[in-house]
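FAQ: What does the model actually see?

It sees only this:
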Amino acid sequence: MENRSPRCAEIHRVTGETDIYVALNLDGTGKADIHTGIGFFDHMLDAFARHGFFDLTVKVKGDLEVDGHHTIEDTGIVLGQAIAKALGDKKGIRRYGSCVLPMDETLVLCGLDLCGRSYYQSNVTYTVERIGAFETEMFDEFFLAVANNAMMNLHIRKLDGTNNHHIAEASFKAFTKALDEAVSYDPRITDVLSTKGSL
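And it is asked to produce this:
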């Protein structure tokens, strides 16, 4: 396979509610520099970088005096945009990715398709309103924003689990490992993996 340039993207998005900068290298080593103002969210994004071998910088100034909604959802928007931009024409990538990830008593499945059509479905629920300062209803908002802006088909299923921290972390890590697989190159794929000829 020919040498390929690293797939990188930088996006800076400013609204009346958030100021977000994201830099992403899909061909990185797992380096992370994360500052969202929400500790558990930082932890999840750090895991995203580390376990996907993505280099990720996230700097967020959000209206946390209101709540975490805008910070979390808008970060999902910008991260999704960065994934789409870094992927470029998607030539040579596997396109599909999946992972069944265990974390103690928890087992989470994630499957995704970088098909250019957005869809999100999850059966994951939580028995607490917050994990740290992270409102648990925002997990769906985050993943929906990523899926819509990366133009991916994303499914996350909880197969087992009772500990809310484990369920949340396993969901993020399963997503990360599935994305790492989907964006990876396959030497057998010389164009895009589609009967239509485009993704």
